[in-house]
Write a structure and sequence with these properties.
- This protein is α+β, with helices and mostly antiparallel strands and 447 residues long.
- It folds into three domains: 52 residues; 94 residues, no CATH class; 221 residues, 2-Layer Sandwich (HIT family, subunit A).
- It has 15 helices and twelve strands.
- The strands form three sheets. It has a six-stranded antiparallel beta sheet with strand order 4-5-7-6-10-11, with helices on one face.
- Helix 5 packs across helix 13.
- It is globular, with a radius of gyration of 29 Å.
- It binds 2-acetamido-2-deoxy-beta-D-glucopyranose (2 copies) and zinc ion.
- One 2-acetamido-2-deoxy-beta-D-glucopyranose binds next to loops.
């Protein structure tokens, strides 16, 4: 009897006895039957698609579902590009004028940009208006209240994280989160100013100690220190300069995938001369590669330093690609954004970005180079150089650079948040700019 009552157990309860096992087996057979039916339907579906689609495609010329922009001019990949107005770093509005006329606000900080935007939105001056329209067309910039409740015990802990400051604790109850979306490149960045106000705790292990140990260990068997024997070359040969050399990546990501590296093993201590020499060699390699493969036109460059940032070798090395169709990955997305911007406004996207950042006092200019504290995320360094012999969609040399935090910190700064959603940025870009300005002054970097 006990067996029988077992047999009557509902299937969603713990299956224990023999009966329920049989029951599960029968269910299994039923499932298999269902799978066969489903599989059959899928096969029929695929056959149907193959039979009908042969009428849809007879050569690329008559693709029925042509991607937008696939007009195939043969030079610029699949996206159609036009010739943009020249890139120009001369600011449209002087920053003192901006501060006086467009947004006569107190202190410029990331949090205050919310107030800046409000004042700027109602400005009467025509130049201010024109720049405002560019700003809101490129960026969605929005502050959101994020209040919270805290149990006493956790409140004490949080206050401690905030350096035991009552003022910061008050701010913690009523946080403000700023969302910046770059509308043309679909990048989403979030600033929470409270994170920037936390006291910075030094890492447990000294960075110097870590670095020196790593440097000594890796220098012993470094392939790049003995590049002539231990690195591959492109078939058109290797280039060398006083301080740098080129190699071909052994496991290539493209026909033209070079490593350009200084001869010195140390990735942190450089002279300006060594740095310029390295980038000079990047230019020479691109020229040579283009001469050898005239169709290769789109140069991009990436650089990670030290394992914390994903560098595979401690010896510093840049990856340089020269592609015949398009820039690699995200860099082409910047270019596409700029193309869409040109179509919408008839202006050079990069020029207008410089105009906006300059008005907001977030730039430093030296000659024809401008550095700005980007409102969108950056990681390590990624750079697109102007295309070679192409007038359409002509990017200026545009690099995004950021430090990745303490080298001794084992936590990664890229998680699913950054990969799939928005990057969370803790540092006020005005602080970043301040640091850069100071650095330029201290080092007298005037070239
Ligand atoms: C721009 O910022 C710097 C600080 O980095 C400040 O000294 C300068 O006065 C600011 N310029 C204007 C016009 O607000
Ligand atoms: C501007 O910022 C400085 C430094 O953070 C501060 O001392 C000053 O009170 C601020 N001024 C206003 C009007 O908020
Ligand atoms: Zn080395």
């Amino acid at each position: 009897m006990a067996e029988q009552s077992n047999n009557l157990m509902p299937v969603d309860q713990e299956p224990k006895g023999l009966g329920s096992r049989i029951c599960k087996a029968i269910m299994g057979v039923r499932w298999k039957v269902n799978w066969f039916v489903l599989l059959g339907l899928v096969v029929v579906g695929i056959l149907f698609y193959m039979l009908t689609s042969s009428q849809l495609i007879d050569g690329a010329g008559s693709l029925r579902w042509k991607p937008v922009g696939l007009q195939g001019d043969g030079h610029t990949g699949h996206h159609m590009y036009s010739t943009w107005p020249d890139f120009d770093t001369e600011p449209f509005i002087n920053k003192a004028f901006f501060k006086g006329k467009c947004a006569p606000i107190i202190n410029y900080t990331m949090s205050n940009l919310v107030q800046v935007k409000k004042q700027w939105a109602v400005t009467k001056d025509l130049k201010c208006r024109e720049l405002y329209e560019k700003f809101v067309s490129i960026f969605s910039f929005e502050a959101r209240d994020a209040p919270l409740k805290l149990p006493t015990k956790f409140m004490t802990k949080l206050k401690h994280w905030l350096g035991d400051s009552d003022e910061l604790l008050q701010q913690a109850y009523n946080q403000e989160v700023i969302h910046v979306v770059s509308e043309y490149t679909r990048e989403h960045t979030i600033f929470n100013s409270l994170r920037d106000k936390r006291p910075v705790l030094p890492p447990a292990e000294s960075e110097d100690e870590y670095f020196n140990k790593l440097l000594a260990e890796t220098a012993k068997n470094c392939d790049f220190c003995n590049y002539k024997e231990n690195t591959a070359e492109h078939i058109f040969g290797r280039l060398e300069s006083k301080h740098s050399f080129t190699a071909s990546n052994a496991f290539k990501l493209d026909t033209l995938h070079a490593l350009v590296a200084p001869k010195k093993h140390d990735p942190l201590h450089w002279t300006l001369e060594e740095f310029l020499d390295l980038f000079g060699l990047v230019g020479s390699w691109l020229k040579k590669a283009h001469a050898y493969y005239p169709n290769a036109k789109f140069p991009s460059l990436i650089w990670d330093v030290l394992p914390k940032c994903g560098a595979s070798q401690v010896h510093p090395h840049l990856h340089v690609m020269l592609d015949p169709e398009r820039y690699h990955g995200q860099i082409e997305a910047w270019r596409e954004g700029a193309e869409d911007y040109d179509r919408d406004h008839g202006n050079n996207y990069f020029t207008d970005m410089v105009n906006i950042y300059s008005a907001l006092n977030l730039t430093v200019a030296r000659g024809s180079a401008v550095a700005f504290a980007n409102l969108v995320k950056c990681f390590s360094m990624g750079m697109g150089l102007p295309p070679i012999d192409v007038e359409e969609g002509k990017m200026p040399a545009y690099a995004r650079i950021i430090t990745r935090g303490y080298v001794t910190d084992i936590r990664t700064d890229i998680s699913s948040l950054e990969l799939f959603m928005a990057a969370s940025v803790n540092i006020d870009p005005y602080k970043t700019m301040h640091t850069i300005r100071q650095y330029i002054e201290e080092t007298n970097l005037n070239t």
